[in-house]
From TrEMBL:
EC number: 3.2.2.-
NCBIfam families with a match to the protein in the record: 3mg, PRK00802.1-3
GO molecular function annotations of the record: alkylbase DNA N-glycosylase activity; DNA binding
Name of the protein this chain belongs to: Putative 3-methyladenine DNA glycosylase
Family to which this protein belongs: Belongs to the DNA glycosylase MPG family.
Amino acid sequence: MRVCTISTISDFPDFLDAHVEQVAQRLLGCLMVRSYEDGSQSIVRIVETEAYDQEDPASHAFHGMSARNRTLFGPSGRLYVYFTYGMHYCCNVSCDREGYGAGVLIRAAEPVEGINILQAHRKGKHSDTNLTNGPAKLCQAIAVDSKLDGHDLRQAPLRLVYGRLHSQERIEATPRIGISKAKDTLRRFIIAGNPYIS
């Protein structure tokens, strides 16, 4: 697990109004800072994303806006949270222009701070590489559920903080995981070789 000092890195990303595939790549390396009611916090670094928009048959926005997916059509920088398989939450960052349904699924992240908190939320002594290496694992570890749907990621209790790739890191595009439509489209983006991807 890398050590990361965020006291000098506090800017909200300025690229979220761009096309979803650009946003999905630029989110790699950014941080999610989660604060809790007891004053503690955990920090994770995004290492895997997937792009979805309203022209994509695999997207929740494909059939237009509904009560469930309205966050995807709102302003960029909001958290879209959905419940899947009757047991798991997953989260997306809304992007592109307001009124256009688009979001980036955060598939995996690297623990940076508060690993004991992440482990407690995951209900076990998982290794750090197995704590947040999947969208449902990530949401459980940082305590994201439907109450955070629509949350502005500029604000606590969950903030999105600008970050960048390390000098030796590179982005790789692959097919997305766990979908039945448009499954060969290269809209999954990873930090190649990162041990924390799903």
